[in-house]
Structure formats: structure tokens, C-alpha cells
Design goal:
Layout (H helix, E strand, L loop, with lengths): L62 E6 L4 H14 L5 E6 L7 H11 L12 H5 L9 H10 L8 E4 L2 E4 L12
Parallel strand pairs: 1-2
Antiparallel strand pairs: 1-3, 3-4
Helix pairs in contact: 2-4
């Protein structure tokens, strides 16, 4: 039986509405131009897409996203620090195991904008893939580097913590304190 060893072994995602995807239907369905047939079930939204489908007029609670590798001691330490020290407001926390769920080149570009650093600073140059792909070549464009990161997620620095539109690489783990100051 599996038991969590640290706060990073599971994700905690909270929402003020216990059923955020339930949409109340009016009693008179004739008001809709394209009423849903009574025998069809409502469309299911995958759990990892729920944040994208929240109502536009509601303010979201602050959320912390951690791009995490559970095999990395620095990543585990950053998760532990956030859970025990910095997250005193008990903000919702989403842990993304980016090796299991790789980011697309576009997502990496957005993450890079939040990090406010160069693409090269997001790369782990100690990985064998870095040398195999010859990523030290300065002639490579940012687009090529994003594509390499998307295809080889092990190259991404870790952990990366995002909060309130800002991000930081948690190496050393104490770096995450700047997001909570």
C-alpha cells in the first residue's frame, strides 16, 4: 500500500465551491436555442483542465504551482519548505510532475516569461541529453531550445514555483521565499 512520505507526494487543490463544474440548469429548457437532449450526459472536463473552465467573473484564489521531480532532493526540499513554512495562508497548491506530464513549447515560453530569465537559464546543462543534443551551441534559437525542453523534460531546471504570476527556480530551495515576501 502506498503512503505519502512528504507533502510533495500528493497534490492539494482546493476550490471554494465543492462542485465547481456543476452548472445550474433553468427550469424551462426552452429558453435555450440549442437545448441539450435529456438522454445525454453533460460534457466531462478532465480534472487537469478544471482551472481553465472557471467562471470569468469570479476572482480565483491565489494558487501555487510547483513543477516538481519527486526524485530530486532540491525539489522535495522546496515542496517541504512551502508546505511547512511559506504557505501560511494555506493557498491552494498544484504539484505538476513535469516528467510524467511534459510541458509544451508554448507552456514553456509562458513559464519563461514568468521566470523573467533566458531560456538557457531554464536548462540543466549537467544532463547527458544536453550534451547529446549539443544545446551549448549558441547559434540555437530560443524556439529550438523550447522544442528541446518539450521533447526532453529532464532538461528543465527544478523545482520551478509559480505564484501570483511570478516564478522562480528553487535552487537552492530557499529561493522560493522571494515569492512569499
Amino acid at each position: 500500500m502506498w503512503t505519502p512520505r512528504s507533502p510533495c507526494d500528493y497534490a492539494i487543490v482546493s476550490h471554494p465551491n465543492p462542485h465547481p463544474l456543476r452548472i445550474a440548469q433553468p427550469a424551462n429548457t426552452n429558453l435555450h436555442r440549442n437545448p441539450q437532449p435529456s438522454n445525454s450526459a453533460p460534457a466531462k472536463i478532465p480534472p487537469d483542465c478544471r482551472r481553465a473552465h472557471s467562471p470569468p467573473n469570479h476572482r480565483r484564489k491565489p494558487m501555487i504551482t510547483i513543477y516538481h521531480n519527486p526524485r530530486c532532493s532540491k525539489s522535495r526540499a522546496a515542496c517541504e519548505l512551502i508546505a511547512t513554512t511559506y504557505n501560511s495562508a494555506n493557498e491552494a497548491t498544484e504539484i505538476v510532475e513535469y516528467l510524467k506530464h511534459p510541458l509544451t513549447a508554448e507552456q514553456l515560453k509562458q513559464l519563461n516569461a514568468q521566470l523573467r530569465c533566458t531560456v538557457r537559464e531554464m536548462l540543466r546543462d549537467s544532463e547527458p541529453e544536453y550534451k547529446e543534443l549539443q544545446l551549448s551551441n549558441t547559434a540555437l534559437t530560443d524556439t529550438q531550445l523550447y522544442e528541446a525542453l518539450a521533447k526532453h523534460p529532464i532538461l528543465l531546471q527544478r523545482p520551478i514555483v509559480v505564484r501570483n504570476g511570478r516564478a522562480i527556480i528553487g535552487r537552492p530551495p530557499e529561493n522560493v521565499a522571494t515569492l512569499f515576501a
